[in-house]
Design brief:
The chain is of the alpha+beta class. The protein has 11 helices and 6 strands. The chain is elongated, with a radius of gyration of 27 Å.
């Protein structure tokens, strides 16, 4: 019997960190040399949820593959399974694990809100799977993963510390998650990219960010002092002529000065907030 080729869902595939060139080459060598795909492709409702690289390699070399069918009640549950499956990989750096954990946490929170709106709803105890052409034993890493959100003893109004939840899911420390969040929020693009591709470790990147923030904070303090010295004189100069006697260009100059001062003050406040670590988005209800 001919097995239909599974559909590729771009949203599902985007959840899966790509293999390095070396990892892909090794996987291809293993499949081609044995002339078979050792692990079955995992499919839900005709859509591929795991095995994108394996299917691509098999299709290119004309190698048959097995299919394991999973049963999920929604796209969100399928996506959570994908994220859990990826979090089980040992070749991911901490930044990749944190990114996956953030996505999983958001999906779990969304699922918890849906369950709450249904007053408990219909709970599906597990997922069933069947394999065509051979057998494959896959444990389900999703089991009970939403317990923290659906069975929490905390009152509904209590805040959930996102950093701690993400740290648990990613298998890293709470401090590592905090440092990563600060890097993604305040670091320059080059620093963020170096962390995400594993060129720089999170701790090293955070020390570089801390050094840069101190430098910018010093510049902001100088701006504050400059504004403190010059603002009174600027305001005094602006009152020399009544507003209706100011030339258009003078009005534009004063407006430009005021705009520049406002931007400097905002930038300085943001830098002070970043350096003190008192960000407002660490906790969420």
């Amino acid at each position: 019997m001919t097995i239909p080729v599974p559909r590729i869902d771009p949203a599902f595939r985007a959840l899966i960190p790509p293999l390095s060139a070396e990892e892909y080459s090794q996987l291809e060598h293993n499949i081609v040399s044995s002339k078979k795909c050792r692990d079955a492709l995992v499919v839900w409702d005709g859509t591929l949820v795991d095995g994108h690289n394996r299917m691509e390699i098999c299709a290119r070399h004309g190698i048959t593959f097995e299919i394991k069918e999973m049963d999920f009640v929604s796209r969100d549950e399928a996506m959570i399974w994908i994220l859990d499956n990826q979090l089980g990989r040992r070749n991911l750096n901490d930044a990749m694990r944190i990114e996956l954990a953030i996505m999983k946490t958001e999906l779990l929170r969304k699922q918890a809100m849906v369950n709450k709106s249904r007053n408990g709803g219909n709970k599906k105890a597990g997922r069933s799977g069947s394999i065509r052409q051979g057998a494959l034993n896959l444990s389900d890493p999703y089991d009970n993963c939403s317990a923290e959100f659906t069975k929490s003893s905390k009152p509904e109004s209590a805040k959930i510390n996102i950093h701690k939840t993400v740290a648990t899911e990613a298998g890293v420390s709470h401090g590592t998650v905090q440092n990563y969040m600060e890097i993604t929020k305040h670091g320059n693009p080059e620093l963020r990219d170096a962390v995400k591709d594993g060129t720089l470790k999170i701790g090293t990147a955070h020390r570089l960010l801390d050094k840069e923030l101190k430098k910018q904070l010093n510049m902001a303090d100088k701006s504050f002092r400059f504004i403190g010295r010059t603002l009174p004189q600027l305001r005094k100069s602006a009152k020399i002529l009544p507003p209706d006697q100011l030339a258009d260009d003078e009005e534009e100059i004063m407006q430009d000065i005021n705009d520049r001062i406002a931007r400097l003050l905002k930038q300085a406040e943001e830098l002070k907030e970043a350096y003190s670590g008192k960000t407002t988005d660490t906790d969420s209800k």
